[in-house]
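Hey, quick one: can you model this chain's 3D structure?
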Amino acid sequence: MTKTPDSAHPRRASIGVRVGQTVVGNGAPVVVQSMTNTDTADIVATARQVAELARSGSEFVRLTVNNAESAAAVPRIVDRLAMMGVQVPLIGDFHYNGHQLLADEPAAAEALAKYRINPGNVGFG
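Sure thing. Here's the predicted structure for all 125 residues.
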């Protein structure tokens, strides 16, 4: 554990990984991540909320990707955000069936900067 100059809390040594243009880990600054509470299949509402979160300082935004409709919506959300001038890495939050959704919707797999699988759901589905 090491202390960084900007933190009184010890940080565990880790390997840095890139999410979009941002490095996470390896002593990089802590970043703000938020999660939408919209139905991801609602492209307009989700893009609007992602934009609000990004403009409020969120550096990553997580979306629930829990069914085929939400997976199919992800690339359209990214396109809509681009039209709005919003660039923020989107993280897909998967439960149980993420492997199947990503296989069925490869455009969603490409549009997401990162995948998050709920640890309690690993090995199920």
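One thing worth noting: Residues 51 and 86 are 6 Å apart (CA to CA).
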